Amino acid sequence: MKLGFEETQSPYASGTQSARAWTEAWVRAWAYCPHCGSAEISQFPNNSPVADFRCTSCEEEFELKSQKRKFGPKVSDGAYKTKCERLTASNNPNLLLMNYDRTSLAVVNLFIVPKHFFVPEIIQERKPLATTARRAGWIGSNILLSKVPESGKIHIVQNGVIRAKEVVLEEWKKTLFLRDKSLEARGWLLDVLKCVESLGRRDFTLDDIYAFDRHLGDLYPGNQNVRPKIRQQLQYLRDHGFIEFLSRGNYRLKS
C-alpha cells in the first residue's frame, strides 16, 4: 500500500472535484476489504444512491467520505429517509472516512465505521433546504461519529502510518457479532459501551455504569428494567472480548 495519490494532475478546475478523483482512484488502487481481505474493490457508477464501492469477492459495500481536515463529531451524508431505510438492509454500506494532505497529495488517515455500528441514534435529521434552494425541501442527514464507540472506528491508516492488515481484519472480525442483533439490541450494546468509554479509564465498577441509568432510561423509555439490562449488556461485552471481568462488580475495558 502506498499513501501517495498517483495522479498529480487533474482535468477538473474545482479543487473538490480533483480531490474526489484522487481519493477515489486511491481506493480503487490500494484499499482492501476489511471483511474478507480481498483487494478487488470496484466502483459504482457516479451518483449511486448510497454506496461508492463494493468488494467483488464478498459483496460488502462502502461509502467514501474524504476531506483535508480530520473528521469531527459529525459527518454530512445523503438523504435522511434513504439512510434510515438502509439501516436494516443487507447492502447497507460501511463508511470509509479519509483525510489527506493536499500539499503532499497523500492519505493521512483512513478508518472505517462498519455498517453494524449504524443505529438510528447516530443518524441525525437535518433541516429541509430552503424554498429558494435548487432542491427545496430536501432533507439530508448527519452521521454522529461522537456516538460511535471507538471499537467502531477501525483504522487502516493512522497519522500517516499504515496499520498491519491482519490487525485490521481481526478488529473487524471482533465486531461481527453485532450483525446478528436487532437494531434495538445493537443500540443497547453500543450505548452501554459508549458509557464505559466515557469514563475515561480502563478499570470501572458496576456502580459507575449504574450512574448512567437515567441517561439510558431516557434513550429507551419503554424499558422499565434498566439496571438488569445494563448487567446483560456488560455480560455480552465480556463474552465478546470488549471488557474483562476482574471481580464481583469490577471490570476492565480491553485496549
From TrEMBL:
It comes from the Bacteria. InterPro entries: DRP, DRP_C, DRP_PD-(D/E)XK_dom, WH-like_DNA-bd_sf. It holds the Pfam family DpnI_C. GO terms for molecular function: endonuclease activity. Residues 184-252 form the Dam-replacing protein HTH domain. The keyword Transferase does not apply. Keywords: Endonuclease, Hydrolase, Nuclease. This is Restriction endonuclease DpnI. It comes from Bradyrhizobium nitroreducens.
